[in-house]
Amino acid sequence: MSSRGIRDQVAIIGMGCTPFGEHWDASIDDLTARAANDCLADAGMAIGDVDAFWFGTMGSTYSGLGLSRALRIVGKPVTRVENMCATGSEALRNACYAVASGAYDSAMAIGAEKLKDSGFSGLVTPAVSADGTAFESTAPAAFSRLAPAYANRYGVTDHEMRDVLTHIAWKNHKNGALNDRAQFRSEVSKARISNAPEVAGGLGIFDCSGVADGAAAAIVVPADQAERYCADPLYVKALSVVSGDSTGLLDPAFDFTRIPEVEACAADAYAQAGISDPRRAFALAEVHDCFTPTELVLMEELGFSGRGAGWRDVLDGAFDLTGDLPVNPDGGLKAFGHPIGASGLRMMFECWLQLRSKAPPERQVGTVADGRTMALTQNLGGQPGACVSAISIVGTHRHGSSS
Amino acid sequence: MWVGGLARQTAQRRIISQNNQPVGLYGTLFSVTTILAFATYRPAFSVDVAEIDAAAGRPPKSGHRIAAAHDQDTVCLGVEAARRVLSGLDGDPSIARLIFATSRPPLHDKTNATVIHAALDLPASVFAFDLLGGQRAAAAAIDIAVSAPGGTLVVLAEITIGLPGSDDEVNCSDGAAAFLLGDDSTDSAVIANVLGTSGLSVELLERWRQSTSLTASTWEERFSEHAYQGLATRVLCDLLSASNSLKTGRLHVTGTSRRTVAAAVRELSASTTDHGLSGVGSAGTAQPGFVLSNLLATAGPGEEHIMLVLADGAHALHLRTTGHVPAQRPSPEPTPLPYVKYLQWRGLLGRDESRRPEPPRVSAPAAWRASTFKHALNGGHCRRCDHVQLTSSSTCTHCATHGELEPYCFRDRRAVIRSVIVDRLAAADSPPLTSAVIDFDGGGRLECEIADSGTNPPNIGDIVEMTFRRMSAVGGIPNYFWKARQITGEEV
Question: What does each C-alpha distance from A350 to A34, A38, A326, B241, B261 come to in angstroms?
Answer without folding.
Answer: 17, 15, 12, 94, 79
